[in-house]
Amino acid sequence: MPxxxxxxxxxxxxxxxxxIWMLIATFMVFLMHLGFAALESGMTQAKNTVxxxxxxxxxxxxxxxxxxxxxxxxxYPGESFAGGWFGFSGFGISTDASGLGISYADGAYTYWxxxxxxxxxxxxxxxxxxxxxxxxxxxxxFLVFSTLYVAxxxxxxxxxxxxGGWLAASGFHDFxxxxxxxxxxxxxxxxGAIVLGPRLGAYYGGRIQGHNLxxxxxxxxxxxxxxxxxxxxxxxxxxxxxxxxxxVNTSMAAATGVMIAGLGSWIFAGKPDLSMxxxxxxxxxxxxxxxxxxxxxxxxxxxxGISGVLIIAADGALSRMHVDDPVGAIxxxxxxxxxxxxxxxxxxxxxxxxxxxxxxxxIGVFCVLGSAIIFKALDATLGMRVSxxxxxVGLDIEEHGVGAYGGMRLVTEEIPVxxx
Amino acid sequence: MPxxxxxxxxxxxxxxxxxIWMLIATFMVFLMHLGFAALESGMTQAKNTVxxxxxxxxxxxxxxxxxxxxxxxxxYPGESFAGGWFGFSGFGISTDASGLGISYADGAYTYWxxxxxxxxxxxxxxxxxxxxxxxxxxxxxFLVFSTLYVAxxxxxxxxxxxxGGWLAASGFHDFxxxxxxxxxxxxxxxxGAIVLGPRLGAYYGGRIQGHNLxxxxxxxxxxxxxxxxxxxxxxxxxxxxxxxxxxVNTSMAAATGVMIAGLGSWIFAGKPDLSMxxxxxxxxxxxxxxxxxxxxxxxxxxxxGISGVLIIAADGALSRMHVDDPVGAIxxxxxxxxxxxxxxxxxxxxxxxxxxxxxxxxIGVFCVLGSAIIFKALDATLGMRVSxxxxxVGLDIEEHGVGAYGGMRLVTEEIPVxxx
Amino acid sequence: MPxxxxxxxxxxxxxxxxxIWMLIATFMVFLMHLGFAALESGMTQAKNTVxxxxxxxxxxxxxxxxxxxxxxxxxYPGESFAGGWFGFSGFGISTDASGLGISYADGAYTYWxxxxxxxxxxxxxxxxxxxxxxxxxxxxxFLVFSTLYVAxxxxxxxxxxxxGGWLAASGFHDFxxxxxxxxxxxxxxxxGAIVLGPRLGAYYGGRIQGHNLxxxxxxxxxxxxxxxxxxxxxxxxxxxxxxxxxxVNTSMAAATGVMIAGLGSWIFAGKPDLSMxxxxxxxxxxxxxxxxxxxxxxxxxxxxGISGVLIIAADGALSRMHVDDPVGAIxxxxxxxxxxxxxxxxxxxxxxxxxxxxxxxxIGVFCVLGSAIIFKALDATLGMRVSxxxxxVGLDIEEHGVGAYGGMRLVTEEIPVxxx
Lengths: 420, 420, 420
Hints:
The structure is a homotrimer.
Chain A: H1 10-42, H2 49-75, H3 111-132, H4 139-161, H5 166-170, H6 178-196, H7 213-233, H8 240-269, H9 274-289, H10 297-320, H11 329-347, H12 353-380, H13 388-393, H14 395-400
């Protein structure tokens, strides 16, 4: 029965279009997980590919399940306590039918849509960390870290702003999560990369190259595609003016990020650097995420361009400090996440730069402390880093017993042929 | 002219949103064909990749064309005969304009949308078989098989339930096709794998590994993405409550499938097995497909988890019986298709387990007989299996004259340089 | 606030669904750029992959930015001069809020949506050229060419038809751009391939094979997926009858293109040729693009089938003439673009074949002249072709200093191990 038995109203028709758009946006954010998996495995060495794919597939699944079990109710508790710093409305998701009607979110989406859109966001925060610790982190320890980070840290921070907590009350503006999602992942990426230390040989004779750049390019372009759902869905309705502005801003920032990072590497390093151009797209996307709803496309161009410059600078600085981040997660998600959030305070007259700074700083301190405690506790117990032998041979053979590019097994005549 | 010349009503607005959602769901199901192609080529040996890609691209095309020519009218004949066991409303698709208005499906979609959504489903049933017979099936024979299976067998079974036949009258519940699509493909996969026998050397010294696991991961995540259209579109409208519940259930089952199959392989085989985790996602997806519209997310978690256990068990059993299924199509699509269908009878009070069992069994017998007759007839005439030499060298070079990863042709100074 | 404060009308609900569909179609056209990048890099040699990815990522970005700066206002100037041959409404995109309401396009989409949908189209025209000149074109020169072609040539031609210029007044019919997009790219591809000359060794001992056919297959299937947005979005609303007919026609033409090109290569060359089957899909898609709105699915089958024949013939003819087109861009986009445009005149009684021919010819002359002038000017100044050494070694190492499939750097005990 596609239509209500009674004559539908235009409000009901709008409910249907809003909700289906939010679900489609959810599917697009889902596809970002394929993007992250492809980017991370393409940007790293072939010997660790199975490990990375297993890790990212697991994080997605852990993210969805823990968000159902505890995250959603930590992030959107209804009522919060302790001055808007904490709230929790119980374990598990509701099956109360009242969340399915037009009254749940003023005709924008159902309870189920709300949950699954937010769950896909939650899973991205943990995935961001994954790239920075790749090729040397112990799988079991990282999965425990991810579980805690996505189940507790991310939803708590999310509640402060999107869940109606103290940060929402402060006038802080972070439309789709330059800070709430990307820097939350980025801070833990920084902490993780420092705690683990660099990969063996990372600073010996030039950068370790990615083993499959087409795979990395697939990853980045799928991330860009998915970002239209990430930012466009953050309008929380299909409002034509709002969504179309967000989409234009998102496109402009990404395109400028590519050009500036690509040209920048060409000018400063003498060669057009594909990895930098790819990360330039992501830098622009992270940069515009905080203000895509309130800025003009011209501001998006400026923000995306500065994001492109920032990742070149940050990448160089991290290299000099020997903070080894195989995929560039820290420049992209942390540096541009912070920049994008501050940029709203700079380019939008309604938003206070001081408030933006305050929000960035408080969340930074919380995430650094939270991730450092978890990483250090795991390091002291399970151990965060694989053995030297495992790292040299590769995690695929050592942890998984299989390579990513096997299958060329030689079948010769000596093999007893199966009876047909 | 975007709007009707007369003042549109809310029913018309709903017609537009329903129809566009059904088309978008169609596009997502289309993308599942890329998912199947990537999964199957990634999970097999490099020497058969061109063959697999050619096969899957052809099946998609054959599926769309035969469904237009005969399948749609076999599956949705309007009236059926022989007690709801058979019907046919003629060759080709209609170009009658009456299918384009709001009256065609009560404002849910047009005739064209109906056809193309169903056509994409049809093509998936044949593609499922492809994975189980990979690396040793003769291309021409398999394309003849696919043509017959997708043109006749699949639509006949589909008619019994979705086309208003005897199974629909029995109270059988299969929302989006755990049985009607996945087990229909899965039974033929089982028959095909048995008729062909195992690959040369399949049980000699460990499993033959896939040659490109990132490609397999791309495949699985695109399949998961496409499944949101497969299950979400099976609501047959954009009804917010119905579609959003289906999407949440689909997500929960897939995520649990990943975790249980991944952890299960870790515990039982000592190593976290990426292939198993990937197939765990598909297992959960197939498992929830029959009941995603009527079950709770908690039931979806249980169904997805059991699906994860079942593929580990089924994979072991098939190995012991030397039924060689290179991609795990039989555990995923047949075993979890049956399980998902029965699970609706277990978890939903409105659905009879006995009726579910009866439907599964009758369709199983029909598909086994149908596919066995076609496979055996082709084996006796064209031959189903390639020669030993072709299999050893690889189908790419032998049947297609080209490798999948060529292109590194050495160009040296001896080559006469073309005039510029 | 998802809903208007006042009671929304059904017209407003339709505005929301139309606009969100146009944005989703935009995202799908965006994904075609990933399709082009994957197809082009998969169909060429491994040593030029980084170069191709950098090139395609840059073209996408340049296309979006130049379209904002100048292209959109060249293509849709409002008023045109010189008898509908030229118009320009100023640099940059408007931020006037009047473009965001229901009055902008009769409730079909906002100004921002209009811009970004058209911008994605613009970027495809330049990308088409990229494949034909791959593996030997100088990166910097090609980026300058692309910038000029996408910023000036494409929008001028687009204005003639879609911008309300002289061609629109003539009764020319090109629904989604067989001529306006595909042949505009295709003519420049032809000119570029001739100006550059063939790759070193291109006609020495068999065709140069693509290095990664799974990547090419990913590319083609993503292009097919994106084409549903390209053609479906060209309805410029979510009109159920119109969009669903377009989607069915698009599917039928693509599927027939695959079958005819695949079977044709099998019959004529003795081997089922995957590259030909893949290009058959694109051939059918380009062929149906001009008339998908006015033709029947049976006509789509005929057009797609003839497209499949045409690329085999055109590919052979180009080979004999030593016009080296590594990915088959000229057969697909130029030959089938012309054929598809003429086919509307043949199959649709309302469209004049003579007018179609005239439009094809005038645009052909303009694009050949335009692209030849730019290519020749660049060849005389920057140089269009890389040196022989660069071509032999590969553009990746020579121009970018990195290979696409590195990353297997050997890390041995001699390397000073970083302190953990």
